[in-house]
Amino acid sequence: MNLEKLLTEARNPETENIDELATLEILQSINQEDRKVALAIELVLPQIAQAVDWIVESLSGGGRLFYLGAGTSGRMGILDASECPPTFGTSPDLVQGVIAGGEKAVFRAVEGAEDSLTMAAEDLLARDLSPRDVVVGIAASGRTPYVIGGLEYARQLGCHTVAVVCTPDSEMQKVSELSIAILVGPEVIMGSTRMKAGTAQKLVLNMLTTASMIRMGKVYGNLMVDVQATNKKLVERSKRIVCLATGVSREEAEAAIVEAGGSVKVAVTLLLIGSSAAEAQELLGQVGGSVSQALRVFRQN
User: I want to staple 217 with a disulfide (CB 3.0 to 4.6 A). Which of 52, 100, 199, 290 is the partner?
Assistant: First the structure.
C-alpha cells in the first residue's frame, strides 16, 4: 500500500501551520478549503448526469440503487438512502446503503471489514442483487478492497456500476463502468477524508437521488409531493405543499389530503384538475406519477 501516491493522503501546504492559528483563523482555513468542493463537483457533472440516467432507467424498470462503502463513505450512502422514503415516498428497499461490517459499523469502526475483497459480494448476494440494479461504490481513496470486490461482483452480474472517488486513476475506476472522480485536493488535516472528501460524496449522492426522483415525477415544481407525513412536522409540510401548489386555503388543503387518503400528490392533482381522488389517481397512473404530465394530459383532453 503506497499512500504517498494518493491525492487524499497528500499533505496540504495551505494548512501546515494550522495548529498555531487562533480559533477563528482555523475556521477560516477550513472554510477556504471547503469552498473548493462545489467547484470540483462542477467538473464532473456530465458523469453524474450519466449515472442519474442509469438510475432512472433502473428504478423505472423494477431495479434498485445500492450504495456500497466502508467507514465514512459507507455512512454517507446509508444517510442518503435512509432519507429517500420520507422525502420521496419510496420503499426502503428501493435505495439501500450497504456498509462494510454491517449495521454496527454505522456507529463504530469494525476492524478489518473494509479489507475483504469477498464480503461485499456476500452482502449484495444476500440482497438478491440482479442485473436490473445499479451499484454505486463510494471510497475517497478509490482503493478500498470491500468496495472493489462489490463492484467487480456487480459488473459480472451485468449491473451498471459507478465509482464515486476523490482521487484520479483509481483502482475503483478500473473495475467500474463509470467513474465520478471529485478532485477536492488534500484535506485540511492530512488523510482526514471525513472532511472535504466526505462533503463531496454527500453532495454527489444527494444529486444522484434527488435528480433521479425529479425525473421519476416525485417532485412538482420544486415541491416534494410524494412526501410521507410520518411526524407532525411533515404533516404540516404536506398541507403547506398543497397550499403552495394549488393556492387553496389550509383548511381546503387538509380536506383534500384526507380525500386523497393521505397522498399529497393526489390531493394536489385533484385540486388542480377539479376531479375526484379516484380520477386524479387514475390520471397519475397513466403518466407515471408526474403531476406536471398529468396536468398536460388533462389540458389536452
Answer: 290
Q: 18 near 29, Cβ under 8 Å? A: yes
Name the catalytic one among 114, 152, 171, 187: 114
pTM: 0.93
Q: DSSP code of 223?
A: B
Q: Is 252 a catalytic residue?
A: no
Q: How far apart are CA 232 and CA 242, in angstroms?
A: 16
Give the integer Cα–Cα distance in Å for 287 and 72. Answer: 39
Catalytic-residue membership of 114 = yes
Catalytic: which of 83, 177, 252, 279? 83
Rounded Cα distance, 195 and 295, in Å: 44
Where are any strands of DSSP class E within 125-218?
134-138, 160-165, 178-181
